Amino acid sequence: MIEIDSRGSKCPQPIIDLAQGILRNPAEVEFRLLSDDVATWSDLTAWSRMTGHQVTASTPATFLIRRVRN
Amino acid sequence: MEAAINARDNALNAGRSMGEEYRPERQHPEPTSRVLQVSPVTTASHDQSSSPLRRNFQESVPLTSKELEFLGLAFALGESDPRWSFGPGAENALRLQRSLETIANAWGLSPSTLTFFSDRYLAFYLAIHGVLIANDFPSISLSTIEKKEVLAIVDGLPDSLPRHHYGVGIDGIFDALGDDRSLHILQIRNGETGISQPELPDGALILDATSALPGDLVEFDLASRPWHAIVLDATSWGGPRGLYALAINPALHWRNPMPTLDTLMPTFGANYGLTMLAALQLEEFLGRDHRAIALANERVREIVSQVADVDIAGRDTRDRLSLSFLYTESEELQRSLYADGFLFDSGSACSSSQLEPSHVLTRMGLLSHGNVRLRFRPENLASAVEFAHALIEKVEAERSRR
């Protein structure tokens, strides 16, 4: 699992960091995003729908994301 | 305003009292407005090619010069109490009645059911509490994207009254409509996305039509439905901010929850001049080419769909359009398009004035960053395609910088 630390960044940076992390690791399926931005959860929900990913677990500042399709 | 004051002075110099109608030497064609049949001003003309609104896609826009003139005259001729614009008297009572009829007719309502307020919270409070104290409902059903005032009022109700919050799908299909015995509080059209409620539940209704368009209610055949109260907002038809109407169904039970002598209907709580202005603007709204507006909306959708990763809310959203672009910052898009003269709103958190994203976008599962919110009106239609191309250019430029 790849961890992407975006704590301290405001939207849309955590989603950009996540997308770039996924792009750099094409073989990886699971990612952990660390973000304390209030908009990250809602952005992740829409981003997952649009890009073929799934948020499998979340706490207020940690999100587990799984690649569903390439 | 100066012109209005001069007009008042001329009237007074001619020996007329404030209660009498003032008829200046007419320099314009006869007014076509029914509301202003007895007024010295004409309806606002909208020269689209030179309008300052030509590149403005914001929800709220400045008043036209004619509208300002109307308001100036209203206040100049009013009494010290600004609610009594144009002064009291039979002539104004007639103007007000015509305004009420204009607004009520456009919404398929009876004028006698309507009362106006300057406070949206008060209108919703009276609607919800007035229905609840006069009826016995086992629960309340409402959607998660209701107005914050509605959510706050319902939050303040006793815990013994169960609430069902139903979600909203991305295409605007409310995913459940609650228990038929429930009191349903329903938004007819969402103001941020333009998405409309496609069907109504069979149960009792309080309808939030504050972002609806005239015609939306008519489609639901209200006469055959148990609606208790409806709240309107003049901004939904391009009217002034700060004017709300509450319609109460006289055939069903409602009781004024406020400590007042008038237990049946709340008293008129809005400015008369604003109400007349709202009726004027409604006449203008009804006269718009709504098909041209829908076509412009569709054309912008087609153009922005050419870029990757765009989240477009709903389908038939009439004169509103909400777009969100992945990996972009709406504040940056606003800034760069403002340099080209374009103005629009955003529901994103990524702007300095907001700490949290729009609760509507969040709860609908729509992307909350890079959000661009547009409202189409006759003055900006000719710029819509140009705007769409400029927008995708800025989106691609911003993405390439990251």
Write a structural description:
Chain A has 70 residues and is of the alpha+beta class. Chain A is built from two helices and four strands; from the N terminus they run βαβαββ. The radius of gyration of chain A is 11 Å and the shape is globular. In chain A, 29% of the residues are buried. Chain B has a seven-stranded mixed sheet with strand order 1-7-6-5-4-2-3, with helices on one face. In chain B, α4 runs parallel beside α5 (148-155) and α7 runs parallel beside α10 (384-401). The chains are: A alpha+beta (70), B alpha/beta (402). The A-B interface holds A 10-12, 15-16, 19, 38-39, 41-43, 45-47, 49-51 and B 170, 309, 311, 324, 326-329, 348-350, 355-357, 361-362, 365-370, 402.
The proportion of residues forming helix of chain A, as a percent range, comes to 25-40%
Terminal-residue CA separation of chain A: 17 Å
List the helices and strands of chain B in order: HHHEHEHEEEEEHHEEHHEH
| Topology, number of strands of chain A | 4
Number of strands of chain B: 10
Number of helices of chain A: 2
Average pLDDT taken over every residue of chain A: 92
- Taken from the alpha-carbon principal axes, the silhouette of chain A is globular
